[in-house]
Amino acid sequence: SAVISQKPSRDICQRGTSLTIQCQVDSQVTMMFWYRQQPGQSLTLIATANQGSEATYESGFVIDKFPISRPNLTFSTLTVSNMSPEDSSIYLCSAERANYGYTFGSGTRLTVV
Amino acid sequence: TQLLEQSPQFLSIQEGENLTVYCNSSSVFSSLQWYRQEPGEGPVLLVTVVTGGEVKKLKRLTFQFGDARKDSSLHITAAQPGDTGLYLCGGAGGTSYGKLTFGQGTILTVHP
User: Residue A105: its chain B contacts at CB < 8 A?
Assistant: First the structure.
């Protein structure tokens, strides 16, 4: 399956600041996805990132809060902007590759203080 | 909006017992994936089922896709402590092209 490298693996941030999370895939993929997950719970899709176009956001998530970049077919970033304690969560990126299904990064555990 | 109802949410069993996790939907999916996730890691794909009625086996794990491709089950035989983790089902296709719709997850704890 495709290997996805995600970093940072964890961070503790001050409220009001921003954090950018990076995901690198070891092969070209058309679609990349960003999720949020509370420990022990399911995943909530934030947005879908396609190369060459703006990301598509799910209900409840907006570009100003979670800007996404997708400069090429192997890389994407998610920024969590103007953070508050409510943004504390695990953030995961994912990619779909034909014949391999959906693969996930190892996640970024964010704590906002 | 496509929804996947996963049950049970929690399972706490003794080593050697059998268990089944269910995912049900009113929507049709082109495929359904099962994942296992451990703390501090991302979900790891266990299996993808594509054909209605399909049954796949992975050692002690048996996965089934419903005939109508609306539901799926994961059965574990003789559970072991190493099976402990969060199990997630994710449906692909249908009206949510390209996206996975996840169930609520099942936290499985297998006690030695």
Answer: 42
A82 SS3 class: coil
Would you state the structure tokens that stand for residue A112, as one six-digit string? 């906002």
Closest CA to B30 of B77, B95, B92: B92
C-alpha angle A63-A68-A69 in degrees, rounded to nearest 5: 140
Instruction: Work out the minimum CA distance from A41 to partner chain B, whole angstroms.
Output: 6
Whole-number Cα distances in Å, B102 to A87, B23, B33: 21, 9, 9
Judged by a CB distance cut-off of 8 A, whether residue A107 touches chain B is: yes
Cα–Cα distance between A34 and A76 in angstroms, integer? 9
* Helix/strand/coil for A86: helix
What residue in A sits closest to B105 (Cα-Cα)? A42
**Which ranges of chain B have pLDDT less than 70?**
1-2, 94-97
Say if A7 is an interface residue toward chain B (CB within 8 Å): no
Task: Give pLDDT, residue B95.
Answer: 60
Q: How many residues does chain B have?
A: 112
